[in-house]
């Protein structure tokens, strides 16, 4: 389907949507009112208004207002944590109610109630966080703000750059080649993280950047985030295996005019820099390495190795400033302004917000700017129909700092400036450029003269309708539309290239979804309650991509007047002229094939509840996808859940336990994030000609049996509230097995094929989740502590390891039978030989002193890439108007592989050397930690991947420290304000870790799932994390 | 109200079925073709077979490594580079995971697989009988050639025992593996006897099919099939049959010998085409069949030395007679600028590009003559000496025309070795003649490459 068609269809659907709702009109009684509390008469937010004998509930808004449609002669139950429940028989159309406070309000139990209402998970688990918590100060983006707050969700930030990518994992890794990130559902609409990773371009990894909406969404507009995992995520079927994050923005309950301004600003500083040797040391090391080579290998044949690289004389080398990190890193700054307005009456609510955001990252030229806006409109044309319309628009611009393998800071640390002037016209870098064609490795220059910028526009439109057919039958209809447009500009000027050149990449993604969901409730004698739901969904998404290259231009392509306003599409006629024009100017233009895929789903659930004590539910979802091979079109995912609320038993008499529930679930869910065309074979009709005749070549085999990866999960949990509701928590154990993992399988070579992409492997994750919320002090000082802890044991299982290919050449990370995924395939390092300064390895209990001849059997498997435990401890203390919050975050047990150490610390060339090279072997008899220096370009035959480069990646850090103050009394009133809150926060104040080379939190960004999954702890040359200091002000009018 | 519920359930069920029956989940790949779509005519089948020729001339096969590996094992060349996998081969220690030997294996089987696919699809596509026979014959030829080269390198030589059906050969692939299922399935390893039988069968059928068809030497043709069959029999020391097929070609007089060894393989030398029975054609520098070979023997910028150098033995042998033109033109003295050492390099293939002679008329002359000597066909010997002397003439100014079976046999073997240096012949001659390399005898397991482990 062409994108244009979507634009036509979508408004049509909306019209049908609204009109059908209005036609299905019928009469009912509406009760509205205000809930207040007894102590001060304040209005109560979050009170639950429930129609007795049904699951039908409404919640009061922040002004205590509620509205519910009920049959005549019904009974309403009003409840709120910390207040006595009250029943009202046959309420009037306006029914105000005051709830009597039984003790101090327990804010943390709000979570439980939200969870119950949304029927996501019947527990006190920390799987929901609300507006107030998300809006913790000190964070820039969505994922950052979530770290440590949801039990079971592991978040690792790639770096502190503006717009940096964060990796989200739930319940350990489950896949090798597919996405391991959770499904993100934004206002009912699935949006993809890592959107472009299967149709990748080299730009995406540059700057640790990741174009998806969540990297620039307005955090302050999010009202609620819910995490679903294991059996509770099973209803998401083929997209649920990695867990689900439900994100909801602005809501509907406002009944008055409210205006809110939130402003914050601050600075950030790099947390780390590398400790490199200076020019004098470098010159000495070059001499020492040359001497070593003469002694051990004879003179080097290559005359290029006679002096310093690039024929720099030593005198000028000593005069050069080598502290290039100083020129690359900087103090960053950011500011964030968020303005929102809400207004509502009984029949309609409107709201809108806008955010302006600017962030200058810790590396020169790294910048992110975003404008977000959100418009909400709720309308109730008739009593039985409720519609909500939500439009979310984000515009973002990101100037990348070239990092990691793409250059910039990474380049800085790889080629670097041990002795070379970064700007002199005849410097080493000029020569280097000439040697290596159009590549420059000068980091300072790279940042000045190479610009890489991306622009994103995201439009998300949602329409939800709820129609009440009868009091026990409701129908939910949801349509969503998401358009994402990404443009990337790359430009290198004439100081980097003889012929300056640029490229422009344009990508569009359009997603459209419609769901229909009738729900039916029956209650018999207030004892048995049944709930049935049916669900059908159609989801389709399409990608387009094209690229334009140009050389000999004096500015980036988007700034070129020649190309302004030109449409680069293959369909439009003017393009033919343009094509000619482009050709003449030395441009060329590539259009990539369009990709699209669709998902068609059906699901049914049934649940039963007996006296609020026993409950059970079953469900089945069928997902059909265009991605699957033709022999496997539909996937089926069943789930079963049950719970027993022991404390609701009549015979329950234990006083100090207020609430106790056991629940358990068993389910199947899937992952199908393979490339849209993975099932197809590829035949090229333009193979290498033979004898000047065309040939046809086969490039890839079709796989009609290709299917999803299936995860079976079992979980059992215990929820408790004890000691007069002072302590609430949950413990859960789970076991998950993922089958049919897509792997590259080694084919017998006599088939003519080397590796096949098949559903084959298995992976197990077993874990333990723990969440505890305690009220330590109450009264003048209020002190609340929240603890999150997640333990996960991962094992990859594949008996036929023979068939398992080593996935990556450069990295020792590998899936290995009965080892955590990924494990490292390495040599057992013993010591540096005192005799000749070469590494000595242990092989089968014997020391092997000849690294030239290293048997393959000498490899062993060790370490693990992902942490086995992580969590946080969060304290919040308030005293009069002051509040203090601090959160420690910890991560334990991952093994960092110091690839930079392996790759760069073993030989002296034009690269920077870390100071740990001082501990090198110099002469026979030395005890050393680093092998003897050499100029030899290829140390790989001698220096193997070994446990010498493995480090414990565990750490604990003070993630956030916030001090806030609510301006008291009548000052706000005099300013005609309802509330003023000031805060100051510091992020990453200190870190404790055994890894002393750099910051232990990083995620090396690659442009594809396979490398991302295999290298969670692959340390090369990561950009720094930052420490931020932030001041903010929040005002409500 | 219950009617509402019923309607809903009915609507949902209808929706479910209509969706499941609809085209919503049918997908087509964008821009790429399935093999069935791409290969649907005799022309496209021909083009597909073209990629089988490309596999043969790949750098892993005749384009380089096939000869380099043979000559390393035969001790004619040595490796001076840094690559571990080449070092292993040079040290006779290559295991079943050696990437060079695995590359030969895989690429040769790719050529076989493509031929098999052509043989399978032929029946589905309507075309004139002639075209079909031509395609079939070529496919069978490529399949035979592939199996033959592999069994010689990866299995014990012929005559290791009396009964070669007990000796492990290679998997014989007779069906295409163009599906995940067939590609992941292993084929059992046949005996050497069975492999040779299959090779002979394929070449014989190819002869029948290609007979009377006009084909250039850059494609499989009837004489190429005859020549290969002769070579196969010769490898088995079946001199009668080897003589029979070699004789057919020599008597045919279709091919002539080029009159000089200088610039023999030069792309600017059209006359050499008359000596080639089957060649893997290069048409330009951009379309070079033998890039890997040239790279192996040329002086690289990094190390200032070629990766492959002639061994002292081959230098001694070739320089034995100083007026040997092959010594003059195929070797060159090179002075290392760093230490002023002088080193002999191989310049036999030093052209910007070069076609690969898979089988030549000169080889047929040698096979015919040696076979005749071995089975004592005296009359024939005299006739055939004419061609042999032509070869001698272009090599030397002066040569002896002494006869006598033993003398001739030794001379022919020696001259053949000198004529085909670095063309992958020596190893198989060692095995055929039951001689040896250094301290490895002809049937030593070190002279055999290991079959990849995943077979």
Helices, strands, pairings?
The complex is a heterodimer of chains A (1037) and B (455).
Chain A: H1 3-23, E1 29-37, E2 48-51, E3 57-59, E4 65-70, E5 75-80, E6 83-89, E7 97-99, H2 110-117, E8 128-130, H3 131-134, H4 142-146, E9 153-157, E10 166-170, E11 183-186, E12 189-191, E13 222-228, E14 244-249, E15 258-270, H5 279-297, H6 314-319, H7 325-328, E16 332-344, E17 348-360, E18 367-382, E19 385-399, H8 409-414, H9 428-435, H10 443-449, E20 450-470, E21 473-492, E22 501-524, E23 528-551, H11 574-585, E24 587-591, E25 595-610, E26 614-625, E27 634-645, E28 657-671, E29 682-684, E30 697-700, E31 709-722, E32 727-746, E33 755-777, E34 781-797, E35 813-814, E36 823-832, E37 839-843, E38 846-848, E39 859-862, E40 869-879, E41 882-892, E42 895-898, H12 899-904, E43 950-952, E44 955-966, H13 971-974, E45 979-987, E46 991-993, H14 1009-1014, E47 1018-1019, E48 1026-1036
Parallel strand pairs in A: 1-7, 11-14, 42-47
Antiparallel strand pairs in A: 1-4, 2-3, 2-5, 5-6, 8-13, 9-10, 11-12, 13-14, 15-16, 15-48, 16-17, 17-18, 18-19, 19-20, 20-21, 21-22, 22-23, 23-24, 23-25, 25-26, 26-27, 27-28, 28-31, 29-30, 31-32, 32-33, 33-34, 34-40, 35-36, 36-37, 36-39, 37-38, 40-41, 41-44, 42-43, 44-45, 44-46, 45-48
Chain B: H1 2-21, H2 35-38, H3 42-56, H4 65-73, E1 77-79, H5 84-90, H6 99-122, H7 129-154, E2 168-171, H8 180-184, E3 189-191, H9 192-210, H10 222-235, H11 239-252, E4 276-280, H12 291-297, E5 308-310, H13 312-318, H14 325-330, E6 331-335, E7 342-346, E8 356-360, H15 361-374, H16 378-395, H17 405-419, H18 426-432, E9 436-437, E10 440-441
Helix pairs in contact in B: 3-6, 3-7, 6-7, 7-9, 7-10, 9-10, 10-11, 10-15, 11-15, 15-16, 15-17
């Amino acid at each position: 389907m062409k994108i244009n068609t979507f634009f036509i269809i979508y408004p049509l659907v909306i019209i049908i949507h609204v009109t059908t709702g209005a036609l299905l009109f019928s009469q009912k009684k509406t009760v509205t009112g205000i809930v207040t509390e007894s102590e001060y008469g304040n209005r109560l937010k979050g009170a639950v208004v429930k129609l007795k004998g049904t699951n039908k509930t409404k919640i009061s808004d922040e002004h205590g207002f509620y509205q519910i449609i009920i049959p005549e002669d019904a009974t309403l139950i009003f409840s709120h944590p910390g207040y006595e429940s009250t029943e009202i028989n046959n309420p009037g159309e306006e029914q105000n109610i005051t709830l009597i406070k039984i003790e101090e309000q327990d804010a943390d139990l709000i979570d439980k109630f939200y969870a119950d209402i949304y029927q996501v998970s019947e527990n006190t688990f920390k799987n929901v966080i609300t507006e107030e918590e998300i809006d913790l100060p000190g964070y820039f983006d969505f994922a950052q703000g979530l770290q440590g707050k949801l039990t079971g969700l592991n978040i690792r930030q790639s770096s502190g750059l503006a717009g940096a990518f964060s990796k989200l994992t739930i319940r350990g890794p489950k896949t090798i080649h597919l996405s391991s990130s959770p499904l993100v559902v934004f206002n009912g609409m699935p949006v993809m993280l890592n959107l472009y990773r299967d149709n990748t371009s080299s730009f995406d990894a540059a700057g640790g950047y990741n174009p998806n909406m969540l990297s620039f969404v307005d955090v302050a507009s999010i009202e609620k985030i819910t995490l679903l995992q294991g059996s509770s995520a099973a209803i998401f079927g083929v997209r649920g295996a990695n867990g689900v994050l439900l994100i909801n923005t602005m809501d509907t309950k406002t009944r008055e005019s409210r205006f809110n301004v939130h402003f914050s600003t601050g600075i950030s500083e790099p947390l780390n820099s590398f400790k490199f040797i200076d020019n004098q040391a470098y010159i000495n090391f070059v001499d020492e390495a040359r001497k070593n080579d003469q002694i051990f290998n004879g003179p080097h044949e290559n005359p290029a190795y006679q002096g310093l690289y690039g024929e720099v004389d030593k005198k000028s080398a000593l005069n050069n400033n080598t502290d290039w990190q100083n020129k690359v890193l900087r103090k960053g700054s950011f500011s964030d302004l968020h303005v929102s307005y809400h207004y509502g009456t009984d029949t309609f609510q409107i709201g809108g917000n806008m955010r302006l955001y600017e962030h200058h990252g810790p590396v020169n030229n790294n910048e992110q700017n975003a404008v977000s806006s959100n418009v909400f409109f709720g309308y109730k044309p008739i009593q039985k129909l409720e519609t909500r319309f939500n439009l979310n628009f984000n515009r973002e611009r990101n100037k990348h700092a070239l990092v990691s393998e793409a250059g910039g800071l990474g380049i800085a640390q790889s080629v670097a400036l041990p002795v070379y002037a970064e700007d002199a016209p005849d410097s080493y870098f000029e020569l280097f450029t000439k040697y290596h064609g159009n590549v420059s490795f000068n980091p300072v220059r790279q940042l000045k003269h190479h610009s890489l910028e991306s622009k994103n526009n995201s439009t998300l439109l949602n329409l939800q309708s709820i129609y009440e057919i009868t009091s026990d039958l409701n129908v939910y209809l949801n349509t969503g539309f998401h358009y994402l447009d990404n443009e990337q500009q790359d430009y290198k000027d004439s100081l980097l290239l003889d012929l300056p050149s640029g490229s422009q990449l344009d990508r569009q993604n359009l997603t459209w979804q419609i769901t229909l969901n009738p729900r039916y409730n029956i209650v018999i004698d207030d004892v048995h309650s049944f709930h049935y739901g049916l669900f059908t969904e159609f989801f389709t998404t399409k990608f387009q991509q094209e690229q334009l290259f140009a050389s000999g231009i004096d500015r980036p392509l988007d700034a070129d007047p020649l190309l302004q306003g030109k449409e680069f599409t293959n369909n439009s006629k003017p393009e033919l002229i343009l094509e000619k024009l482009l050709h003449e100017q030395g441009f060329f233009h590539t259009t990539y094939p369009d990709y699209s895929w669709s998902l068609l789903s059906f699901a049914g659930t049934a649940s039963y509840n007996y006296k609020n004590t026993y409950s059970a539910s079953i469900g089945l979802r069928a997902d059909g996808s265009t991605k699957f091979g033709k022999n496997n079109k539909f996937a089926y995912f069943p789930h079963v859940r049950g719970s027993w609320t022991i404390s609701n038993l009549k015979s329950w008499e234990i006083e100090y336990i207020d609430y106790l529930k056991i629940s358990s679930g068993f389910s199947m869910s899937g992952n199908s994030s393979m490339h849209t065309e993975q099932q197809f074979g590829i035949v090229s009709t333009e193979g290498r000609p033979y004898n000047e005749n065309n040939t046809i070549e086969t490039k890839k085999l079709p796989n009609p049996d290709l299917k999803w990866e299936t995860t079976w999960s079992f979980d059992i949990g215990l929820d408790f509230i004890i000691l007069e509701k002072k302590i609430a928590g949950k413990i859960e154990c789970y076991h998950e097995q993922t089958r049919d993992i897509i792997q590259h399988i080694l084919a017998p070579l006599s088939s003519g094929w080397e590796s096949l992409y098949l559903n084959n492997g298995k992976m197990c994750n077993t874990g333990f989740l723990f969440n505890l919320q305690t009220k330590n002090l109450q009264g003048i000082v209020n002190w609340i502590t929240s603890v999150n802890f997640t333990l996960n044991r991962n094992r990859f299982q594949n008996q036929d390891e023979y068939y398992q290919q080593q996935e990556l050449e450069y990295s020792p990370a590998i899936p290995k039978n009965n080892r955590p995924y990924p494990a490292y395939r390495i040599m057992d390092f013993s010591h540096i030989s005192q005799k000749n300064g070469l590494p000595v390895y242990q092989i089968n209990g014997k020391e092997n002193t000849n690294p030239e001849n290293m048997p393959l059997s000498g490899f062993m498997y060790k370490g693990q890439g992902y942490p086995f435990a992580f969590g946080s401890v969060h304290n919040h203390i308030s005293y009069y108007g002051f509040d203090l919050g601090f959160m420690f975050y910890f991560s334990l047990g991952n093994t960092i592989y110091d690839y930079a150490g392996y790759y760069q610390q073993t030989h002296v060339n034009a690269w920077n050397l870390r100071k740990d090279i001082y501990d090198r072997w110099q002469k026979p008899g030395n005890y050393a930690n680093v092998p003897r220096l050499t100029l030899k370009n290829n140390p790989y035959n001698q220096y193997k991947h070994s446990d010498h480069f493995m480090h414990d990646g565990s750490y604990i850090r003070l993630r956030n420290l916030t001090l806030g103050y609510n301006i008291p009394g009548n000052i706000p009133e005099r300013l005609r304000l309802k509330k003023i809150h000031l805060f100051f926060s510091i992020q990453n104040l200190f870190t404790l870790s055994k890894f002393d080379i750099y910051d232990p939190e990083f995620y090396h960004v690659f442009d594809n799932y396979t490398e991302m999954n295999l290298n969670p702890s692959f340390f090369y040359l990561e950009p720094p994390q930052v420490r931020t200091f932030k001041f903010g002000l929040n005002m409500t009018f | 109200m219950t009617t509402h519920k019923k309607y809903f359930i009915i609507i949902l069920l209808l929706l479910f079925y209509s969706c499941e029956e609809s085209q919503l989940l049918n997908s087509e790949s964008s821009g790429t073709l399935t093999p069935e779509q791409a290969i649907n005519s005799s022309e496209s089948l021909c083009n597909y077979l073209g990629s089988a020729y490309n596999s043969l001339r790949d750098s892993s096969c005749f384009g380089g490594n096939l000869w380099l590996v043979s000559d390393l094992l035969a001790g004619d060349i040595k490796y001076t580079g840094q690559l571990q996998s080449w070092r292993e081969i040079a040290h006779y220690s290559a295991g079943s995971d050696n990437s060079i030997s695995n590359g030969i294996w895989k690429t040769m089987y790719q050529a076989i697989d493509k031929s098999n696919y052509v043989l399978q699809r032929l029946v589905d596509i309507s075309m004139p009988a002639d075209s079909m026979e031509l395609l079939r014959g070529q496919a069978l030829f490529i399949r035979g050639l592939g199996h033959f080269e592999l069994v010689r390198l990866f299995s014990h030589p012929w005559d290791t025992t009396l009964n070669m059906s007990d000796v492990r050969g290679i998997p014989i692939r007779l069906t295409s593996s163009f599906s995940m299922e067939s590609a992941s399935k292993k084929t059992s390893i046949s005996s050497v006897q069975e492999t040779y039988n299959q090779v002979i069968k394929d070449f014989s059928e190819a002869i029948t099919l290609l007979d009377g068809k006009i084909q250039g030497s850059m494609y499989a043709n009837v004489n190429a099939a005859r020549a290969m069959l002769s070579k196969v029999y010769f490898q088995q020391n079946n001199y009668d049959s080897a003589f029979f097929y070699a004789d057919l070609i020599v008597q045919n007089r279709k091919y002539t010998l080029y009159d000089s060894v200088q610039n023999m393989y030069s792309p600017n030398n059209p006359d050499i085409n008359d000596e080639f029975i089957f060649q893997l054609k290069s048409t330009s520098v951009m379309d070079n069949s033998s890039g890997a070979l040239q790279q192996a023997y040329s002086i690289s910028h990094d190390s200032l030395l070629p990766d492959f150098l002639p061994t002292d033995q081959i230098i001694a042998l070739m320089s034995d007679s100083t007026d040997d033109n092959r010594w003059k033109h195929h070797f060159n003295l090179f002075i290392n600028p760093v230490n002023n050492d002088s080193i002999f390099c191989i310049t036999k293939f030093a052209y910007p590009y070069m076609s690969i002679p898979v089988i030549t008329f000169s080889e047929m002359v040698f096979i015919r003559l040696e076979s005749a000597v071995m089975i004592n066909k005296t009359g024939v010997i005299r006739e055939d000496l004419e061609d042999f002397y032509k070869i001698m003439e272009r090599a030397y100014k002066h040569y002896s025309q002494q006869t006598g079976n033993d003398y001739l046999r030794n001379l022919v073997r020696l001259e053949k070795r000198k004529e085909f240096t670095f063309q992958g012949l020596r190893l198989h001659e060692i095995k055929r003649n039951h001689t040896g390399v250094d301290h490895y005898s002809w049937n030593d397991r070190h002279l055999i490459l290991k079959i990849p482990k995943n077979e």
